[in-house]
Automatic annotation (TrEMBL), chains A, B:
GO biological process: fatty acid biosynthetic process; phospholipid biosynthetic process
Family per similarity comment: Belongs to the PlsX family.
EC number: 2.3.1.274
Gene that encodes it: plsX
Keywords on record: Acyltransferase, Cytoplasm, Lipid biosynthesis, Lipid metabolism, Phospholipid biosynthesis, Phospholipid metabolism, Transferase
Protein name stated in the entry: Phosphate acyltransferase
Natural source organism: Gimibacter soli
Amino acid sequence: MSDKAKIAVDAMGGDHAPQMVIEGLAAARVLYPGVRFVIFGDENVLRPMLASFPELDAASDLVHTDEVVTSDCKPSQALRRSRQSSMGLALQAVKDGEADVAVSAGNTGALMALAKFILRTMPGIERPALVAPVPTLRGESVMLDLGANVECDTRNLVEFAVMGAAYARTVLGLSRPTVALLNVGVEELKGKETLREAADILKQASHIPMEFVGFTEGDAIGAGAVDVVVADGFTGNIALKTAEGTARFMGELLRRAFGSSLLAKIGYLFARRGLRQLREHLDPNNHNGGVFLGLNGLVVKSHGGASAEGFKTAVITAIDMVEADLIRLISADLPDVPGHEEEAGAA
Amino acid sequence: MSDKAKIAVDAMGGDHAPQMVIEGLAAARVLYPGVRFVIFGDENVLRPMLASFPELDAASDLVHTDEVVTSDCKPSQALRRSRQSSMGLALQAVKDGEADVAVSAGNTGALMALAKFILRTMPGIERPALVAPVPTLRGESVMLDLGANVECDTRNLVEFAVMGAAYARTVLGLSRPTVALLNVGVEELKGKETLREAADILKQASHIPMEFVGFTEGDAIGAGAVDVVVADGFTGNIALKTAEGTARFMGELLRRAFGSSLLAKIGYLFARRGLRQLREHLDPNNHNGGVFLGLNGLVVKSHGGASAEGFKTAVITAIDMVEADLIRLISADLPDVPGHEEEAGAA
């Protein structure tokens, strides 16, 4: 089934676009030879690049647009004037049923705003959320919301938990992922009221294929203590970036440690194989592919700084989402959330 | 002046108390031979331990109490029944002017509650905050609030910035530390309204010896981009614990990398000196000593899991705070916050 996926691609978004986009698509196509691409962007630049990858070229339709969403474009600006951009057209292709999923490495805020405007939220979902895998000691967990919603209420958090669990079943391949709310302590009385209320609701949601385990703390993320870490978009964004920053900081200290003396350099040579595995495990390009959950259509967000390898990972995530029929999975779970069906009906 | 400091010590708080407390005090006394200690705890246990350190013994008064605040004690419980505990009595000694500062490695929530009740907040300060140094690529920054206040308003954040800057001048030895609010983006329009309002006020606070630089993001903490990172207690706690968890996770991956083969083990032997520096830089025992800011008295919180070395670091922090007269520093800055004096006067 994955071989039938049709992927709308914003070729112009990302720090190293469009070169890394085209190379990433070519690499993904080798793994999934039946997948088809609709590529949006500047034909004059893209045509010669595609010529270097004849098999990708044959599997792709190229749709020209001059318009690009810049990295400093505000969401409100994007809504006003970027509907015809490579990003906007890729989302429109999903809306029109011409593609199963859109992939972009462009401006996150603009992508969120355009996706919400063009695709709209799913029935019963108040706010979409951005979810992504994070590396842990046990492999990978997933975390959401990573910044789509700065302020969240109880209902948003409950929806994020249900959507995150569906995503984890797809991406992590688990039948019943563990889910927890990120808090300042694991005791029931800790933290904000919205978190306690969301926990009370999720405790009753035992029909959903997930294991709600209560609260988790910041230091449990790296340990991989739970499969799905749920937070409001402000907290999730701070936690994700703090983890990335700490990993970068330690990587730099490590680089300095190995450069500090001739002996240390020799040590590096001996240990480099083990260290390469460490680096690969932490490389953001190997964990690329955030997904906007809760929309009437699949949208995958690649890191802006992704390499071709990273963009390939994002495309594979997109194919996985199509294959798993993620939107149907989420729709199927939502009515099982206590009190949710009535609320959604009333809204 | 530091040689005259008198330190009230909760000898019973912390995972490895009281042994690490006594050993930590003995090590600190060697560095500051004129400092005096008032040690609160179980005489039957402490008397024989002190006998092993005759010089510490001579510099200390031992005050017996049977009562101990346990690690699972709730703040409300501590307030009801732990006033006569080793923790409560140490705080009371500061209140009564019998000591200049209290140091405890015990239960944070209980310490905060008891400290607030016994010492009260400074005139003009609405809420105390927990601040601590964090290791960065540039050395150390300080971050607050680390969990004393789950919900914060604009005024709280402004007070935290001013208090954090005074602490950074003392601990980091900077005359004009850079200060930023932790947010999901650096642009002025990003994040929560309380953050934007606090930024507007802090921009005008140019008389205070600090450089307010606006917003900072989670990944800038490890880079050491600013000296003082200001957040509400929920966000600060999540960021601190996420950073600690990520560092632990990477340390474990590194341990595995070096244990993965004989070659890797040989590599470790060559590189161990550089790696030891890395470990020392990250060792929480070298960055120990959170301080409760905003009370009518100095209170230093050691990590609960601190070793003797860590407790020594916390005691040195306490001596530094006394020497710098931190409370006076904060009091001197507060009236310079725009709109603060009137507010404080009206309250």
